[in-house]
UniProtKB/TrEMBL annotation:
PROSITE patterns: TYR_RECOMBINASE. Belongs to the 'phage' integrase family. This is DUF4102 domain-containing protein. It holds the Pfam family Arm-DNA-bind_3. Keywords: DNA integration, DNA recombination, DNA-binding. It comes from Stutzerimonas xanthomarina. It comes from the Bacteria. One of its GO terms (biological process) is DNA integration. GO terms for molecular function: DNA binding. Residues 208-401 form the Tyr recombinase domain.
Amino acid sequence: MARTVTPLTDSRCDAARPRDKDFKLSDGSGLFLLVKANGSKVWRFKFKRPDGREALATFGTYPATGLKAARTKRAEALELLAKGTDPIEHERQKVIEAAQSSGNTFKAVALEWHASMAGKWSKGHAARVMSESEADLFPMLGHRLVAEIKTKDLLAALKLVEKRGALDLAGRLRQRVVGIMRTGVQRNMIDYNPALDLLGGTAAPKTRHRPALSLERLPELLQRIEADTGRPLTRLAVQLTLQVFIRSSELRFARWDEIDFGRSMWVIPGERKPIEGVKHSHRGAKMGTPHMVPLSRQALATLEAIKPLTGRFDLVFAGDHHHWKPLSENTVNKSLRRMGYDTKADVCGHGFRTMACSALVESGLWSRDAVERQMSHQERNGVRAAYIHKAEHLEERRLMMTWWADYLDANRQRHVTPYEFAHRGKSASNVVELRA
């Protein structure tokens, strides 16, 4: 037979005095007043969760929360349980929703951080950052209060990305989380950035080098390009890629109006007008700023050979079936495979950049800044970048691109090392005198 419980009264609650140990004063239906040994009095509600587990909820302290208020909370909890809802989880969700409206959650701070950074990024990069955050950060962290997030919580989200093998993405997300939590510090939500301790918490991706031929094999490559039996435009695309060593998207989406034949200059814009139905067609120079490519007489000759094929269209490398669409992104590599190369082990289109960079450096003729600028690499040193970001080294780069094209010609029959080609004697036409 169940024990009869006499409901509490305010006077009984007031009169309750602490003892050596905590004790309870029951009001029935799971509600009781816990009188602690230190003198404090706390309303507790004992219940079974919808899944059958026992649980305890706290309704506040007495007398701040009176008997009537405690009973009202019990009634609300019993009503939720009747509907199959856990009262504790319900309250937690209410706190989360309140936090979301106040802007103190990880997602709210992440959105603020993203808005502050978007002006420095291209539209495509900003969209990608948001998409990756929504997919891999917000599901686990978005609803959490920034003040409650620990390093282990951030690491748990990154570990899920690492687990599926996306190590590069995990590294990018770690860097972004540092920025997001730094915003929390700056807004006085937290005193310390817990993301600073994430370094080394996930596996580092293996450095992947794009395959490139040794310069000794240049004669072989040049002869195979010349003998290629594929589509003429494809052969010319491979030839131009080697001559100007730009990135695949920079080449594929090239427009004729970017090329100034009079100045022997190709200016690749930071962003191009998108082509409907063509993914990533808005891409221009990778760094998002115009990239100048001085054109050697050999590169100009290649473009002149392309003109009869596509000069009436907007795109330099118009597709086979639709002139408003570019060649496939696999065109150059497919051509190299037809020539007998393994594009995963021997050489790929991107590997031409490695070969050109190696030759330019090994020649000993060109400054590091000029080579890096022509490779369209971004200066990693922030202080140095502040001083050289406007330096184009254009005249040196004109000479350099001509030297590279001449070097390719010199290797058509037999291999000549870059240093040998650059230092044959002061009277040689391929030696460039640079100012000290």
